[in-house]
Specification:
Elements lengths: L2 H24 L4 E4 L4 E4 L12 H21 L2 H4 L4 H18 L1 H4 L2
Antiparallel strand pairs: 1-2
């Protein structure tokens, strides 16, 4: 596989994971889905008739942020991006998993 493609995959994976945790932590949802009504509202909306689902919005926000980071990595000279190691993807992912577990601690401690 091409070294540049591996670098883009690592940048995307790290940026997506970081952006997803930040989106969940601060509730930066691109849109809100209301399943009882079958409607989608832009941004974060309160529930109307039934629960509101923010998960799709968080994933979309993280996707846009990861695409932006990957585009920036494509613009940077190869010397900057080739310093990334494959292990960095795992380290960042495990650290963010711990952050998610911390955010969900109240569900585990009931």
């Amino acid at each position: 596989m091409n070294t540049r493609a591996i670098t883009f995959a690592m940048v995307f994976a790290i940026a997506y994971a970081v952006a997803y945790v930040v989106s969940v932590w601060h509730n930066y949802a691109l849109f809100t889905y209301h399943p009882a009504l079958g409607e989608i509202g832009w941004g974060v909306e309160k529930s109307r008739d039934g629960p509101a689902m923010y998960w799709y919005g968080w994933m979309s926000t993280a996707l846009l942020a990861a695409i932006g980071a990957t585009v920036i990595a494509a613009i940077l000279p190869a010397g900057f991006t080739q310093r990334l190691r494959a292990g960095a993807t795992w380290v960042v992912t495990l650290a963010l998993l711990l952050a998610i577990l911390y955010m969900l601690r109240n569900y585990f401690l009931r």
